[in-house]
Write a structure and sequence with these properties.
Low-confidence stretches: 199-210
Shape: globular
Organism: Deinococcus yavapaiensis KR-236
Keywords: Transferase
Helix content: 55-70%
Pfam families: HD_5
GO molecular function: transferase activity
Order of helices and strands: HHHHHHHHHH
Protein name: Putative nucleotidyltransferase with HDIG domain
Number of strands: 0
CATH topology: Hypothetical protein af1432
Distance between the termini: 42 Å
Length: about 210
């Protein structure tokens, strides 16, 4: 018999322990994965606030951003640290990490976070994954997480890609506005980064942006 494990996301104290459990899972698997999630959560929350999001909705977006890649913990670490090109089989597993992340947040009762987690690799032009959503059909949280995620990856690099400086990373986001990303989200991220509005909060997983 299945049981509904979802909890009221309007109660931050009730949900924070489950968010913390998944964040700790990411940290135990690979500290870099956890740090990436924290940076993306911080930036995504500031971008969303610039776009008008407030209160509980902003907090939910921050949590979804924190956990957007937690599904990567279900596969061997070597898959994510491989310096060369991925095989077709490996690429399939990479693309499945969004469904794995969605499954983990749902299993932990965080159902309201699932859309932002599942769809953060959709593209504005409909060419992304897993569901090839496009434009406004992509959940708002996922659109914000997408730009924050890619900006952080560009600035910090990967085993297969060198890091870019801030100017080059922002230029790449601008180049992809309207194709890969929601142009409004790109504009808000650029304004956030260049305007100095970001603040590194002591507890980015739990506190709303005020």
């Amino acid at each position: 018999m299945s049981h509904d494990t979802s909890i009221d996301l309007g109660d931050p104290l009730a949900v924070s322990s489950r968010v913390a459990d998944l964040a700790e899972r990411a940290s135990a698997y690979a500290p870099d994965l956890a740090w990436h999630g924290e940076r993306v959560a911080d930036l995504a929350a500031h971008v969303a606030r610039r776009l008008g999001l407030r209160g509980a909705d902003l907090l939910r977006l921050r949590w979804a951003a924190l956990l957007h890649d937690v599904g990567k913990t279900t596969w061997p670490l070597e898959l994510w640290t491989k310096p060369g090109d991925l095989t077709a089989h490996e690429r399939l597993f990479v693309n499945l990490h969004v469904q794995a992340s969605e499954r983990l947040v749902v299993e932990h009762g965080l159902t309201d976070l699932a859309p932002g987690v599942r769809h953060h690799h959709e593209r504005w032009d409909g060419g992304g994954y897993p569901d090839k959503l496009g434009g406004a059909a992509i959940p708002f949280a996922a659109r914000v997480i997408a730009v924050a995620d890619v900006y952080d990856v560009l600035c910090h690099g990967r085993p297969y890609r060198r890091a870019l400086d801030e100017r080059a990373a922002l230029a790449e986001l601008r180049r992809c506005a309207g194709t890969q990303f929601d142009p409004r989200c790109v504009d808000a991220l650029v304004e956030t980064v260049t305007g100095g509005a970001r603040r590194h909060l002591a507890a980015p997983t739990l506190l709303p942006v005020t």
